[in-house]
Design goal:
The protein has 13 helices and 15 strands. It is of the alpha+beta class.
């Protein structure tokens, strides 16, 4: 899966856990054998490197299943609960795409509008890139995340407030280069450009549009677009962690060369981890800046997929996909289609330092599932990645009313 704020597909994975890690936190919603089996997978993931895991399964009837487990040592920082706030990273892209398509329905933005029309001189090759290409990541733009200019901000070593225009200016071309419309390649730059287009077309900020058109009407009381590292009020939130510099360098070996000693800023934690809760995510903005809860985001996704936020024509456009092998399926307009062992699901993934998430619905928006994990780069090490995948597979199957796969890689 893409690292959701898009740190490149190769970066999503898991981390080693402290021996004897993790026992319990919270569990609600069912004593069925399938729920107990899912809880066992969640516990194994927490023990095996995910550190903290929230799973919420809503089958559209009855009480949702809610499970929260964590490594023992993390309880000294915070005892997680199913309704804790979480940085949902690139799941934000689905919300940004929804706002764009609402403007398309009102004929204020055209999917085939060239980017140059809206952002003259701000996007390289903008005369040949359309709004649709930004939405489905076929623009030909690379990503700025691991560039030398931005990496210190990503890791929290440099405290800098980036403007979207500045990040677009340091966005490299794809490697190897690809022309507009030629192929899918995930890039956060696409959605920063879409945020600027939204603001120019409407005269409102992205944060205002989110509140006015989505979170307010849907009653998403615990969701907001981050403008700094704060969590806005006293509502509980999950603490995030990442591997220390030595582990990070090993994890990224073969993807990007990380200089010795370069790692995430934050307090040292057990198991060669670093606390990343306070790293500023505001740079992610329209590409990945939302804070939410599992229940809030499931409310958004089910409203969207059941047709409450977009007319049929725009919903059809959103679900028109291009092949996206690195996502395990296909990508529409801000929406990922994944064919799982138990059926097809729609949604997105998300990732920021300390936070990784996968949130999906069925094709009708009646059922939904959220899997939130309190490490992102840490979910790449082999054993932890396998355990995390087992949780997602098990949760999706539970959502769809199917047995949890008996040969799940996490069992």
């Amino acid at each position: 899966m893409a690292l959701a704020t898009g740190m490149a597909g190769a970066l999503v994975g898991c981390s080693d856990a402290e021996p004897g890690a993790a026992r319990s936190s919270a569990e609600q919603g069912g004593g069925a054998p399938s729920d107990k089996a899912l809880a066992g997978l969640v516990q194994k993931a927490a023990d095996g490197g995910s550190l903290g895991v929230i799973v919420r399964v809503d089958r559209g009837e009855g009480k949702p299943v809610q499970i929260a487990r964590q490594a023992d040592w993390t309880k000294d920082d915070h005892r997680i609960a199913p309704d804790d706030r979480f940085r949902v990273g690139s799941n934000t892209k689905t919300m940004t795409a929804t706002l764009v398509l609402q403007q398309v329905a009102e004929k204020k933005i055209g999917l085939d509008d060239p980017v140059e029309k809206w952002l003259p001189g701000k996007v390289e090759g903008g005369a040949d890139i359309t709004v649709r290409m930004l939405l489905n990541h076929t623009s030909g733009l690379g990503d700025f995340l691991l560039t030398p200019e931005f990496l210190p901000s990503l890791t929290g070593q440099e405290k800098r407030t980036w403007k979207p225009e500045e990040l677009l200016a340091v966005t490299p071309e794809q490697d190897p280069p690809a022309g507009p419309g030629e192929k899918y390649s995930y890039s956060n730059a696409n959605y920063l450009a879409l945020g600027l287009i939204l603001e120019k077309a409407t005269g409102s900020t992205v944060a205002q549009l989110i509140e006015q058109k989505i979170t307010g009407p849907l009653g998403m009381k615990h969701s907001f677009l981050a403008t700094d590292a704060s969590w806005k009020d006293e509502k509980r939130h999950v603490n995030g962690y990442e591997p220390d510099a030595a582990r990070l360098r090993k994890i990224l070996s073969g993807t990007v060369e990380v200089p010795d000693g370069v790692g995430f800023a934050g307090p040292r934690r057990p198991g060669h981890n670093v606390g990343t809760t306070d790293i500023d995510p505001s740079w992610a903005w329209a590409a990945g800046g939302m804070v939410s809860t599992a229940q809030d985001w499931q409310r958004f996704m089910t409203a969207l997929m059941s047709g409450k936020l977009l007319p049929k024509a725009q919903m059809k456009q959103m679900r028109t996909t291009v092949p996206a092998p690195e996502e395990g399926g296909a990508y529409g307009l801000g929406l990922i289609k994944v064919d799982t062992a138990c059926g097809t699901v729609w949604g997105h993934t998300g990732g920021l330092p300390g936070y990784s998430s996968e949130i999906y619905t069925d094709g009708h928006g009646r059922r939904s599932v959220a899997v939130l994990t309190s490490t992102n780069f840490g979910v790449k090490e082999k054993a932890a990645a396998t355990a995390n995948k087992a949780v997602v597979e098990g949760a999706v199957c539970r959502m769809l009313g199917q047995p949890i796969p008996s040969k799940s890689p996490g069992k």
